[in-house]
Amino acid sequence: MHTAAVVGTGLIGTSIALALTGRGVTTHLIDHDPDRIRIAAARGAGIPGLPPAPVDLAVIAVPPSHTARVLADHQKAELARTYTDVASVKELVHAQCLALGCDTTSLVGGHPLAGRERSGPLAARADLFEDHHWVLTPTPETGELALNRALELVSLCNAVPVLLEPSEHDRAVALASHLPRLVASLTAARLLEGTDHAVRLAGRGMRDLGRAAAGEPELWADILAANAAAVGPLLAELGADLQSAAAALTRLAGGDPRPQGEALAELTRLLRRGAEGRSRVAAPHGGPAAQPPAVLSVAVGPDRDRELARLLGDVDAARLDLEDVVLPDGTDTPAPPGGTVALLVTPDVADPLAEVLRGRGWSVRRRPSTPPTESR
């Protein structure tokens, strides 16, 4: 790829342009807002305006409701030999492209799964997509050249390509992105009704939700509307769980001891399912799903409490975090000589912590990463 055009110089479009320009691709910037083009060009993202001849690839980086029309217009004007887009909804956009008579042999749908709380060209970064998934949704009519160009784009942006069918993509992002974004917004909106004291007490959980709720409401309304068929049923299922939780809490607040056991069990069940679901989430930047903790067995003497205090003090001094601690068998009585304390840590922490503890005189052995069944 030698030449490219980016249509839409917002956060995603400008970030793509910065990445391409940084890799030596002559990139042209197109936008209906001249100020955004000027800002993107001033940041080194590319050349303002239309190219003198068709480019190798044009990236359509506009909201989903405008993607098909913008693509049709630029195909008619012969902006590029091949095209891709970055809309976060694929099935509806593809259907609209077909309805408008777009040449879908030269088109590959795309969706880079990266973003920031801020929007616009000032927030753009050349490394925004590094190690993030970038979904491509080729269809049976997609040409080989178009797919290869799209794959090259993903590579130039240092992202990780994932090939899905358009409908499969939409169901996946409805669950992994669109539903959480909507729920975050609805939860953050409760802050409007909170007292100043309550808002000041908001901790990390609410701040994280606030970050998820940031962004352009109009753009997200456009995205959710375009993927309504996939998001709506998920929201209904979530609503049923919320109703179950609300009913359980109402019973628990009622003071009648008879139904409270069942209510607490229902609340625990809902929270447990949340914990189980969380364990399936991939690590940041497309890494593997959460791994079982590593287990370090540390030999302790008969004075369990004193030994445990010293051991945990040495862990604190190492500034490394524990996931859990499992005390020796028979935790209600002092451990016999030769007992062990199991330290559960993330796999990346295991070797550094073992080295530190050995340096402080502890006998440490790393065990297979199967969590013990009993913890304190």
Number of strands: 12
CATH topology of the largest domain: Rossmann fold
Arithmetic mean of pLDDT: 86
How far apart the termini lie comes to 58 Å
Report the helical percentage. Answer: 40-55%
Strand order of the largest sheet: 3-2-1-4-5-6-7-8
Q: Report the order of strands and helices.
A: EHEHEEHEHEEHEHHHHHHEHEEHE
Q: How many helix segments?
A: 13
* CATH C-level class of the largest domain: Alpha Beta
Using brief descriptors, characterize the structure shown.
single chain, 376 residues, alpha/beta, Alpha-Beta Plaits, 3 domains, eight-stranded mixed β-sheet, four-stranded antiparallel β-sheet, 12 strands, 47% helix, 16% strand, disordered C terminus
What does this structure look like?
Helix 4 links the parallel strand 5 (80-85) and strand 6 (107-112). The protein has 3 domains: 3-164, 3-Layer(aba) Sandwich (Rossmann fold); 171-258, 6-phosphogluconate dehydrogenase C-terminal fold, CATH 1.10.3660.10; 294-367, ACT domain (Alpha-Beta Plaits). The strands form 2 sheets. Strands 3-2-1-4-5-6-7-8 form an 8-stranded mixed β-sheet, with helices on both faces. A 4-stranded antiparallel β-sheet has the order 10-11-9-12. It starts with a strand and ends in a 9-residue tail after the last strand. 47% of the residues lie in helices and 16% in strands. Helix 3 (64-76) runs parallel beside helix 4 and helix 6 runs parallel beside helix 10 (228-253). With 376 residues, the protein is an alpha/beta fold. Pfam families: PDH_C (PF20463), PDH_N (PF02153). Belongs to the prephenate/arogenate dehydrogenase family.
